[in-house]
């Protein structure tokens, strides 16, 4: 499958319902982009790091780690981003040590609404656009699940219109422009062919489209059963026919649900998404760690 | 120990787990299970799948609504999906000392932002509601379904709000100088404000500081109310009346998240009584899948691999987590369902699986 058009972005943000395979897809895209010669940074913001273990490395915080050919990974904490921003970007190291290490100020900063999310977005903006010399061609963000993601996405414009001021707000305007530029930032949504997941995904997509006014770069249907599960001399019409056998019954049921829901999401996305932007990741079974590049060949 | 015993002995059950493991479904099923034991149950959910909520007839609200259960069920379930902004408004009405201040707070720009959009405040609101319901004699047990993020565990530690409001020193620091500042005018205040204030304005800008301080002054009385509520919540969650249930799926990622969450809950001193292993391959399938009959189905190989992997993971996970728990941990294996669990009747059936 051709993902090349996705790799022309500077930042890819992968979201979707919890458990729909965001981390796996982020890793997969990173591997593909790296194969095209791109230098990739994989970012997550997760107290329990998932990306580094997926590549067979121990989970570390706030440090860019080499993961795989041309791929680096980092698990970012919000407080660390604030520190970097003040020390390195504003060049106020002394200020950070004297002011921001103060326990009272630290607490104070924790209540500034949206500051954490803003810092995280700002940090990625830095890696994509500001860092000189630029270390990465592409940043892939294993973003939060649907609910938190839509909050995250609306954060910069919220802060811009909050009446707050200062350098942080000024910078956020740049971040906002970067995130809402479809040539620079691509939002990718993952989905499973299961009815509850499909309906939540459709809600998320229309929210992103209508409220946040950003286009979606691609949708991935994960764990789609695309291999022909039956021997050649039998056929299956996709409808559920009950069998006396438990195993057959289970597989037929799962298979027909899978087909039905994939069809549904394809149909419903027709107005939203151009052809060629809807992709499939076949059901791969157990994903072993570290991730085995050969299983990606089937995609 | 069975789940009945947990339900019988506890006043609060909190379900935790990484995103997408089926927490909301399990919460509702646990609530129905409790109702079948004759309990009057209050169920608080945060942002469940909309279709699930639709199936139950729930809307975002601040009020509980009774679920229509089978007539054979002796208890009842009252459920609500937290509407962040509405609960927040309620708290302001309750704790603010005058209607003038209430009005000012509700129309303040920062309030509008925190109350509806900022992640973290929803969790706090859920806890505030939990606190109310525990004290309400109309309910025997309160079940709380938590948000999907692993990061959400923070809200149990010290929510963003509690963190600041707990500490009186911070409050004095926040409010007093700003009170003076408001009277002096900000630019003069910053001139005399010393290192800390000057440092802050370098980054946030003077306007931000003014806005935040204005807000802090308005919120003073409300904050004291929040503070009381926060202390109460900590006490409830730490008591033996509360129980935590960890919901997990069976793959490496879920295993890692579960171990992380488990550790965090233990560190906080909360009781974990049960582990729900959700979406296990059905026992009947496991029994027969290795028979030769299915060799010609391509998918079978993958499912066989999954069976082996799941068995290994269950053993590893249970052993691992039991070691961290001083009490025996109840392991509840919930089979992957044939039907979609997205209607009340399906949830009824599903609740039977939690034995």
Quick description:
Chain A has 299 residues and is α/β, with parallel strands linked by helices.
Walk me through the structure.
The complex is a heterodimer of chains A (299) and B (355). Chain A has a single domain, classed as P-loop containing nucleotide triphosphate hydrolases (Rossmann fold, 3-Layer(aba) Sandwich), CATH 3.40.50. In chain A, 44% of the residues lie in helices and 15% in strands. Chain A is built from ten helices and eight strands. In chain A, helix 3 (78-89) crosses helix 6 and helix 6 crosses helix 8 (166-179). The longest helix of chain A is centred in the last third of the chain and has 23 residues, at 246-268. Chain B is α/β, with parallel strands linked by helices. Chain B has helices spanning 3-9, 23-36, 50-56, 84-95, 99-107, 109-117, 121-135, 154-158, 160-165, 168-184, 186-192, 194-204, 206-218, 220-238, 252-267, 283-288, 298-324, 344-351; strands at residues 12-16, 40-45, 60-61, 65-66, 76-82, 141-145, 242-248, 272-280, 330-335. In chain B, strands 1, 2, 3, 4, 5, 6, 7, 8 and 9 form a nine-stranded mixed beta sheet that branches. In chain B, helix 2 (23-36) packs across helix 18 (344-351). The longest helix of chain B is centred in the C-terminal third of the chain and has 27 residues, at 298-324. Chain B is elongated. The mean pLDDT of chain B is 83. The chains are: A alpha/beta (299), B alpha/beta (355). Chains A and B meet through helix 4, helix 5, helix 7, helix 8 and helix 9 of A and helix 3, helix 6, helix 9, helix 10 and helix 12 of B.
Termini separation of chain A comes to: 6 Å
| Count of DSSP strands of chain A | 8
Measured by DSSP, the beta-strand proportion of chain A falls in: 15-25%
Task: Name the CATH superfamily assignment of the largest domain in chain B.
Answer: P-loop containing nucleotide triphosphate hydrolases
- Helicity range of chain A: 40-55%
Q: What value does the average pLDDT of chain A take? A: 88
**Which runs of chain B of at least 5 residues are low in confidence (pLDDT < 50)?**
none
